[in-house]
């Protein structure tokens, strides 16, 4: 192992680089999941699970098991959440998946995560604190979303080597075609972003090229985002498996051999179920902003979803976008306020839901006999 040494006038200091090792992917591959076309949550993405309410997460786990899927992807951080300072909260999600016999594949950042433009030292510090707290519940890790677009090669390899020194779980890079040197010594397998709209012949050729270039297992990653088309995802994923991929993370059971021609999808007439918006109640002290997530259920999509505030609050104001909203009560107001909202699944509106906010008064202190009262001013009225 190479050793870097620096001589200072105080003596000899030896710096040892992080250990880089190859981990077995046994128990991790083949991947079996669907995080882009899954009907239980629309176009889920890796950020869906940590943002969903408990009831929706329960429905999702039941749907995963009913399809025979074995994995689920979830991001530690995105534009709307960051669990690097809350490992206990993230462990709740991991334990739920483990209890349902679902293997958590943890994406350490999403496309809009809080690591963008951060220094390597800050990212290493986050990992050093966070990974030991969650590692026992994790199946494998994915570093970066399109890692070759997120970081420079040097930065990616520094972070990857440090991560590899913290865990014995398999590590994956997620990236576009080419730039295979990003999946270097620390990287045990690749989750391949093919780009969307590929033909089956392109999927087959791209898979073979990636495997030959890397000499490592390749999981067929993102290639289909048409919500509700699991069968299409399975056909495309099976084609990748037939070309040597170790499962796929965009749909179904990766064990049958797919057809050799480009599939076509004939729309099936049917009734679209409207999403069901859920009422909510939250509390906040006066003059204090509070976060409110607009939650709903919709088992058949199709999405994308749009949210509309139909009635604004009377005693406060709203900010935020989509289903991430923030309520700020009017200065000094205490009591009950509410606003109404709905969601549209791109075909039909939901019911109108009510978000209720209880604004409580700030606690006041009652003097205790014999205690000291700070900032007390005494005036001598006799000599005034």
- Tally of separate helices: 8
Question: What is the number of independent domains?
Answer: 2
Corresponding CATH superfamily of the largest domain: Glycosidases
**Gyration radius over CA:** 26 Å
Biggest sheet strand line-up: 4-5-6-7-8-9
SSE pattern: EEEHHEHEHEHHEEHEHEEEEEEEEEE
**Which architecture of the largest domain would the CATH scheme give at its second level?**
Alpha-Beta Barrel
Distance between the termini: 85 Å
Number of strands: 19
pLDDT < 50 runs, ≥5 residues:
1-16, 251-270
Indicate the mean pLDDT: 80
CATH topology title of the largest domain = TIM Barrel
Strand content: 15-25%
The largest β sheet comes out as:
6 strands, parallel
CATH class of the largest domain: Alpha Beta
Q: Specify the overall morphology.
A: globular
Q: Structural class of the helix and strand makeup?
A: alpha/beta
Percent helix, as a range, is: 10-25%
Write structural notes for this entry.
The longest helix is centred in the first third of the chain and has 15 residues, at 120-134. The protein folds into two domains: 27-248, Glycosidases (TIM Barrel, Alpha-Beta Barrel), CATH 3.20.20.80; 276-360, Immunoglobulin-like (Sandwich). The termini are far apart. The strands form six sheets. It has a six-stranded parallel sheet with strand order 4-5-6-7-8-9. Strands 12-19-18-15 form a four-stranded mixed sheet, with no helix packed on it. Strands 13-17-16 form a three-stranded antiparallel sheet, with no helix packed on it. With 384 residues, it is α/β, with parallel strands linked by helices. The protein has eight helices and 19 strands.
């Amino acid at each position: 192992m190479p050793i870097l040494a620096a001589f200072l006038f105080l003596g000899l200091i030896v710096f040892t680089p992080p250990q880089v090792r190859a981990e077995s992917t046994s128990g991790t591959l083949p991947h079996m999941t669907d995080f882009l076309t899954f009907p239980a949550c629309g176009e889920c993405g890796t950020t869906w699970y940590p943002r969903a309410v408990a009831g929706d997460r329960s429905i999702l786990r039941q749907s995963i098991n009913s399809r025979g899927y074995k994995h689920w992807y979830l991001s530690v951080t995105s534009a709307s959440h960051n669990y690097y300072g809350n490992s206990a909260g993230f462990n709740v999600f991991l334990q739920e998946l483990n209890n349902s016999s679902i293997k958590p594949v943890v994406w350490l950042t999403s496309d809009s995560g809080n690591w963008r433009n951060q220094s390597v030292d800050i990212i290493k510090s986050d990992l050093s604190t966070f990974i030991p707290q969650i590692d026992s519940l994790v199946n494998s890790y994915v570093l970066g979303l399109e890692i070759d677009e997120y970081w420079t090669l040097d930065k990616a390899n520094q972070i990857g080597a440090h991560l590899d020194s913290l865990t014995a779980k398999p590590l994956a890079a997620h990236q576009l075609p080419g730039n295979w040197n990003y999946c270097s010594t620390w990287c045990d397998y690749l989750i391949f972003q093919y780009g969307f709209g590929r033909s089956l012949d392109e999927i087959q050729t791209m898979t073979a090229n990636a495997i030959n270039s890397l000499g490592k297992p390749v999981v067929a990653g993102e290639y289909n985002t048409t919500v509700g088309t699991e069968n299409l995802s399975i056909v495309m994923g099976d084609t990748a498996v037939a070309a040597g991929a170790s499962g796929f993370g965009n749909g179904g059971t990766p064990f049958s051999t797919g057809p050799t021609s480009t599939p076509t999808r004939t729309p099936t007439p049917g009734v679209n179920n409207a999403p069901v918006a859920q009422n909510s109640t939250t509390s906040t002290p006066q003059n204090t902003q509070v976060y409110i997530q607009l939650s709903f259920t919709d088992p058949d999509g199709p999405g994308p979803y749009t949210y509309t505030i139909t009635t604004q609050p009377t005693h406060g104001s709203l900010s935020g976008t989509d289903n991430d909203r923030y309520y700020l009560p009017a200065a000094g107001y205490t009591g009950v306020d509410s606003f109404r909202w709905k969601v549209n699944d791109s075909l039909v509106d939901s019911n109108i839901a009510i978000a209720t906010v209880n604004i409580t008064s700030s606690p006041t202190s009652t003097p205790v006999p014999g205690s000291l009262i700070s900032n007390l001013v005494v005036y001598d009225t006799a000599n005034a």
